[in-house]
Amino acid sequence: MNSITEKNLINFWGKVDKEKSTFFYNGSKCWEWTAGQNPKGYGQFLAGRKMELAHRVAWVIANGEILDNLHVLHHCDNPSCVNPSHLFLGTELDNARDKEMKGRGNHARGNRSARYTHPESTARGECHGMSKLTWENVREIRRRYKWGGIGGDDLKTLSLEFEVDASVIHDVVRNKTWKE
Known about the structure:
- There is one protein chain.
- By secondary structure, this protein is an alpha+beta fold.
- The chain has two domains: 6-101, Homing Intron 3 (I-ppo) Encoded Endonuclease, Chain A (Homing Intron 3 (I-Ppo) Encoded Endonuclease, Chain A), CATH 3.90.75.10; 109-180, no CATH class.
- Helix content is 30%, strand content 13%.
- The protein contains six helices and eight strands; from the N terminus they run H-E-E-E-E-E-E-H-E-E-H-H-H-H.
- It has a two-stranded antiparallel ribbon. Strands 2-3 form a two-stranded antiparallel ribbon.
- Helix 5 (155-162) crosses helix 6.
- The longest helix has 10 residues, at 54-63.
- The radius of gyration is 20 Å and the shape is elongated.
- Residues 107-123 have low confidence and may be disordered.
């Protein structure tokens, strides 16, 4: 990444909101990127003539250049966050391990609604920081669910009540997630 100019700095920080975020890591708020984002939610910033990921630019501003083989990773799991204290450097393997530890590996399924609440462990189920359901909720969903709602509740009714997507309820009742 080319050196960051004073004009780049002013432009960059003008696209950051340090107050509005409801997401935290280690007691500090995420700093939300308010400008353009890629399809995965990562901020994009035109530095010179090259489009850069905003969190990488934030790292360079705070810490200096990034070696070619390193990624800038998020402790907070919020792709739009550019708070340098929420960022750390790692390899592709570090990134894969971080995703796995936080339950975001390819095999992980289930609720993504509260995606950016950072879990502090490899917890699953209600102990996982991304979960909106509890084991008590899951048992109640399984007890009340009936195909088509005949003699019980259907997917849509349960998803509205528990404030999760119907696909989450679907996976719960079919034992794809929340396996006891």
